[in-house]
Amino acid sequence: MSTVPTVEQRGLWFEEFEEGTTYLHRPGRTVTEADNTMFTTQTMNTQPLHLDAAWAAEQPGFRGERLVNSMFTLSTVVGLSVSQLTLGTIVANLGFTSVTFPSPMFHGDTLYAETLCVSTRLSSSRPGQGIVELRHTGRNQDGTVVCTAVRSTLVQCRPTGGGS
C-alpha cells in the first residue's frame, strides 16, 4: 500500500518567526455594509456613525457616509494574519499595545494586512513556548494605513521529534 503525503495548514512554530520579516496576508477582505452592521450590533456599539446613515450623512469630515467600526477593522487585520502566522501554533494572545486608526474605513473598502515580526524570545516560565511581538498594519485598497497594532503572542516551539 502506497502512502500519499499530506500537508496540514498551520501557522509558524516559534523558531520559524524571523525578526525584521514582514509577512503579507492575502487575499484582502472587502468590507460590506452587512459586515459593519452585524459586527456593530453584535457588539452593542450604538454609535450612529456606524448605524445611522441619515445622521452620518450630516456629519462633516467623513464623506457623509457611515464609518466601518474600528474594532471590526482591528479584528479583521489580526484575522487576516491567522492562517499564515498562528493557525494551530498560538498558545495565547498576551495583549495589544499602540493600537491606532489613522484613517477611516468605509463600506466597499478592501482591507489588506501585513505583519512585521518585531521580536522573539523563548519564554522563561513556559518551556517549549516563546513570545513573539508582532506589528500588524492594515491598509485600504489605496494603500492608506487604516489600522496599526502591536501584539504579543505566546507561540509553541517546534515539537521535538521534527513534527510538521
What does this structure look like?
This protein has a domain at about 15-30 and about 80-155: Thiol Ester Dehydrase, Chain A (Roll). The protein is built from four helices and five strands. The protein has helices spanning about 35-40, 50, 55, 70-85; strands at about 20-30, 90-100, 110-120, 130-140, 145-155. A five-stranded antiparallel β-sheet has the order 1-3-4-5-2, with helices on one face. The protein is elongated. It starts with about 20 loop residues before the first strand and ends in an 8-residue tail after the last strand.
Individual helix count = 4
Percent strand equals 25-35%
Stretches where pLDDT is under 50 for at least 5 consecutive residues are none
Helix percent band: 10-25%
Superfamily (CATH H level) name of the domain at 14-31 and 80-156? Hotdog Thioesterase
- Secondary structural class: alpha+beta
CATH class of the domain at 14-31 and 80-156: Alpha Beta
Instruction: Name the quaternary structure.
Output: single chain
Order of helices and strands: EHHHHEEEE
Counted beta strands:
5
Q: Biggest sheet: strands side by side, in what order?
A: 1-3-4-5-2
Average pLDDT metric: 94
Tag the structure with descriptive keywords.
164 residues; alpha+beta; Thiol Ester Dehydrase, Chain A; 5-stranded antiparallel beta sheet; 4 helices; elongated
Write the layout of secondary structure elements.
Elements: E1 22-30, H1 33-42, H2 48-51, H3 53-57, H4 70-85, E2 90-100, E3 110-122, E4 129-139, E5 145-156
Antiparallel strand pairs: 1-3, 2-5, 3-4, 4-5
Pfam families: MaoC_dehydratas
Protein name: Bifunctional protein PaaZ
Family: Belongs to the enoyl-CoA hydratase/isomerase family.
